Fold this protein.
Amino acid sequence: MAQNLATTARTGRDNQRYGAQGERLVAGVVPLSNDKTKVLLIQSTRRGGWVLPKGGWETDEGTAQEAACREAWEEAGIVCTVVRDLGTIPEMRAAQELTDKAPKAAYQFYEVRVDREASEWPEKDKRGRQWMSYQQAKLSLQTRPELLEALNRSTITK
């Protein structure tokens, strides 16, 4: 599937999709190296630390897969191809961790092959990116159980 590589990232939630229980629908990727020994993580802009590329599935996007690949481009600067549907992961944060800026969500993740890493991308000035082994990523994602679950569902070498 050809990706539209915008030079700016989308912002706001005016076009956000929501599920039947009012949860925000989020699409994300688990970008693995070709030999499946590393995963590409990005710096979180809100919480600090490292996360998987993900974001809202918007109403003008036909599929969650399309949204996931757009987020991978905007946040990590990668052009990718989906190789595996990792399924839906329910919200795992405690109620006190939910806020207006971080509401309840349902996460749809895809394992992707990285076809290209760009030197310039929409959120380059806001986020770093780093390839990590499974053990490094597991430690980095320990406070984000929904992201760790996505990593564990992937075919990364553990």
